[in-house]
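Illustration: MOSC domain-containing protein.
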Amino acid sequence: MSGIVTAVSSNGEYSFTKPNRDSIRLLAGLGVEGDVHAGVRVKHRSRVAQDPTQPNLRQVHLMHEELFAEVGEEGFKVAPGELGENITTQGIDLLGLPVGTLLRIGDTAVLEVTGLRNPCIQIDNFQNGLLKRVVGRDEAGNVVRKAGIMSVVREGGVVRPGDTIEAELPTGPHRPLDRV
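Result:
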């Protein structure tokens, strides 16, 4: 399974959106250099409030650009970085990957997929009604989260738009993604 990077984004200050960059540098065990969510311990405010000693399983947020077209059909206009992701992708089924998948990006960077982003009310503050489009329920009543996946940096490197992404599935049984 493979895809490409269509945009990269980071922000050194707490803000819902992240400006697009020409490149970002991933730091092993930390996240995106200069990004407010980089670190060994959890950095997301809601997680810090629960337990600031938790490991940071949300170092790098990836989102599939195909979601923008999907919500666009319902009248929402979303561009890369506007939902807070660090890496916007195309052509790879991020939501279908199992826990532990390695994503090899560009020449050297390797991310390990940890789980699904659990979107919050900030999405509705960005565009009213958008939260219901990125979180819903399937026919069986199970919660479906579409707002991307979270990962940790296993090997650092520079990531740029146009870089390829190769998914290396883990051995063993498929463990579906859950919120982290």
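Reading the tokens back as a structure: The radius of gyration is 15 Å.
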